[in-house]
Amino acid sequence: MVALGYQTKRQSITVGTKPSQNLIGERAGTTNSVVLITAHLDSINLTGGANAPAPGADDNASGAAGVLELGRVLASTSWRHGIRLILFGGEEEGLYGSKQYVAALPPAERARIRAVLNLDMIASKNGPTPTVLLEGAPVSQSLITDLATAAATYTGLTVETSLSPFASDHVPFITAGIPAVLTIEGSDSANTHIHSANDTLNFLNWPFAAEILRMNTAALATWLEPLPTRPRPAGSIVSWGPNRIDVFAVG
Length: 251
Prior knowledge:
Organism: Kribbella antibiotica
Largest sheet: 8 strands, mixed
CATH superfamily: Zn peptidases
Number of domains: 1
CATH architecture: 3-Layer(aba) Sandwich
Helix content: 25-40%
CATH topology: Aminopeptidase
GO biological process, one term: proteolysis
Distance between the termini: 34 Å
Shape: globular
Number of strands: 10
């Protein structure tokens, strides 16, 4: 995040009685509004217990890497609205990072948030058809519509939608009345590798993950609103004296 020009900070949280952190990176826009791009960093092994390996390649290294890739792509353009990348701790134990982040937001800060895009498990193709689930609530409907349009325009993804938010870091935002949407691989319940020692890189599908990120990028561009660029001279400059430009061609 630092290398990409984001102003970063860590937010201390607790997971039960244990310390953890949220990592936040921000790039300002020209307005006071901001778009959040989020994922969780932690993983879990439900059957093996706390001391067992929990590599978490899909759940949720794929989402965390997706946040960083979106942050990299978006950093190359100037936007009207700010970008805030957040990597949450403590999601698997009960959304601790996102719940505490939202609870700490003053009303004025909540009002700044135009949209929240949450990435959780984006790299396992769980059936013959590449499918993405867009999950939100009525407050998220316009975000879901934009993402579905982006998927149809720029990808080969089949889109499923749900207005019943469940068990990921978009939920605390929705509960607070903030428009938030989850993008997650379709048929995620069929993924038998997650929450175990078997959630490893060899089961991930990189082209499929790229399709989801392509959809996300297109939707984010509509929410962030690119600033117009100034035309630059594209030909010989004609002048009748030093520092006295008479005419120039633009393109």
